[in-house]
Amino acid sequence: MSRRRQRVPWVSYLLVLSGAVLMVVPFLDMVMTSFKGPGESGKLPYRFLPKGFDFGNYRAALDQLDLPVLFRNSVTATALITGSVLLTSSLAGYALAKLRFRGRDFIFRLVLATMMFPPFLFFIPHFLILVHWPLAGGNDSLGRGGSGLTVSIVALAMPFLVNGFGIFLMRQFMVSVPDEILEAARLDGAGEFTLWWRIVLPQTRPVLVTLALLTFVDAWNEYIWALLISTADPDVMTLPVGIQLLQDYVDPTRTMPVVMAALVLSILPVLALFLLLQKHYIRGVMLSGLK
């Protein structure tokens, strides 16, 4: 029995190591492919390492992509989405967790129901709403005659400003905040906004960081909606759309290495943010019960 107990941790370590290798190998393959020369990518037998490290793929990606504009659009849209999701999720989560009002449970069920539908299901209605937005993009007060908000960078963020999962996550964590602390603060004259800002938010910081990272990654990698908006106005094109269009302008023998080089450049902000907030993210995952 004792020998069996001693072997179990090693089996666990082996499973964790195997999972880590499966996660890291595609990333390393992307990096190695970004350094391959013309004709090396996709050639059989497959070579993981390049024959020589060709930095020309990165120069080609920078030459073909209007990188400052794409980065600006991606950063602006991602910042708007992340900031809005954190604000609305924390406020709604506090209301659903700590305030008593008629219809609270019904509203919470509606929030849960929104998580059952894929986001792209509502892209066409969202697009039509933006097209007919009153007094924007040449529209009159009835939303006719122009292009609405589809030619604005705000359009990239509009469908994602509120997140049902974020509200659910914040509500579930805020329920654990002791009511006695809030009641004592109310007796001292604190209002609901003060309770949310001064007491509840500091205790939910790890979960906020977790939600911020998840939202940031999803918004940064959004492709379908960004492609739809960029067809209306190419000036609001984001990095994922621009990288996809590289395949139409690059030498076919270097298409994949140049695309991989552009992908490496695009994930650097996400990687830097994760490494910076890694401690808070891991703590938030543990506290919120996510797997």
Walkthrough of the structure:
There is one protein chain. With 291 residues, the chain is mainly alpha-helical. It has one domain: MetI-like fold (Orthogonal Bundle), CATH 1.10.3720. The chain is 66% helix and 0% strand. The chain contains 13 helices and no strands. It has helices at residues 2-33, 56-64, 67-98, 104-114, 123-131, 164-174, 179-187, 192-203, 205-221, 224-232, 239-245, 255-276, 278-288. The two termini are 30 Å apart. The mean pLDDT is 87.
List keywords for this structure.
single chain; 291 residues; MetI-like fold; membrane; Multiple sugar transport system permease protein; transport
**CATH class, please?**
Mainly Alpha
**Backbone shape:** flat
Number of domains: 1
The N- to C-terminal Cα distance equals 30 Å
How much is the radius of gyration in Å? 24 Å
Instruction: Count all strands and give the number.
Output: 0
DSSP summary: helix tally: 13
- Low-pLDDT parts are none
**Oligomeric state of this protein:** single chain
**CATH fold type:** MetI-like fold
Quote the beta fraction.
Answer: under 5%
Structural class by secondary-structure content:
mainly alpha
